[in-house]
Automatic annotation (TrEMBL):
Protein name, entry field: Putative 4-hydroxy-4-methyl-2-oxoglutarate aldolase
Alphabetized NCBIfam families for the sequence: PRK06201.1
Transmembrane region(s): none
One MF term in the entry's GO annotations: metal ion binding
Ligand binding (Mg(2+)): 120
Cofactor: Mg(2+); a divalent metal cation
Highest taxon above the source species: Bacteria
Pfam families to which the protein is assigned, alphabetical: RraA-like
Binding site for substrate: 97-100, 119
Signal peptide start and end residues: none
Keywords: Magnesium, Metal-binding
């Protein structure tokens, strides 16, 4: 097997019905339930018009500026899949553009995540198909490889295994590990209940901030009288 130029089978993937239930909760709530320790990097921003993304990861490790394996992944992807590409964050050449996004939409995929650049930004911005990327450039990609499909990848320290759940919204991206997806969905819904009560308390003028002074006391903070 030639590491650096290989296409593997995805052994498992989070259930698509479960993934779509994550569209009901903000990424920030899931992140809080993961102890705020995981993130897909603040550089990767939504390039589409808006809307949440959730689906099983089809992972690619690509040479910076080369999209050969992304084209192959479009042949392999199943409806709902999110194609997640680690191309080192290089912005010299675009990895995808309007045509590949149109292909993904036609196949009813769940979205694109590019640790790299895109082009045709205007057309992508006008659409609702989820595309997250680190930047934009008009320079097109090479198609020579090498690259790997369905291997573990990492984006700014966030490890993504093939079949993990990828979610995204206006706040950014998050990978939910396959084994934790069911539990974290329940925790995120509970977090939403708590936050909804906080909003209601603020509107009613009864929001409790006593924890602030309690924390300052615990930290032995000096407060001038």
């Amino acid at each position: 097997m030639n590491n650096g130029l290989r296409i593997l089978k995805r052994r498992r993937a989070v259930d698509l019905a479960l993934a779509r239930r994550y569209l009901e909760v903000p990424v920030a709530n899931v992140s809080d339930c993961m102890a705020r320790m995981t993130a897909g990097g603040a550089r990767l921003r939504p390039m589409h018009s808006g809307g949440r993304m959730a689906g099983p990861a089809l992972t690619i490790k690509a040479r910076p500026g080369d999209n050969l394996m992304i084209h192959k992944a479009l042949q392999l992807a199943k409806p709902g899949d999110v194609i997640v590409v680690d191309a080192g964050g290089d912005l010299t050449n675009a990895l995808i553009g309007e045509i590949m996004v149109g292909d993904a939409m036609n196949q009813k995929l769940g979205g694109f995540v590019m640790n790299g650049a895109i082009r045709d930004a205007g057309a992508i911005r006008e659409g609702s198909f989820p595309v997250f990327a680190a930047g934009v450039t008009h320079r097109g990609p090479y198609k020579d490889g090498p690259g790997e499909i369905n291997v573990p990848i990492s984006i700014d320290g966030m490890v993504i295994e093939p079949g993990d759940l990828i979610i995204g919204d206006e706040d950014g991206l998050l990978c939910v590990p396959f084994d934790d997806a069911e539990r974290l969905l329940a925790a995120a819904h509970q977090k939403q209940v708590i936050e909804n009560k906080m909003v209601a308390d603020i509107q009613a003028g009864s929001f409790d901030r006593s924890w602030v002074d309690a924390t300052l006391t615990r930290l032995n903070c000096y407060i001038e009288e």
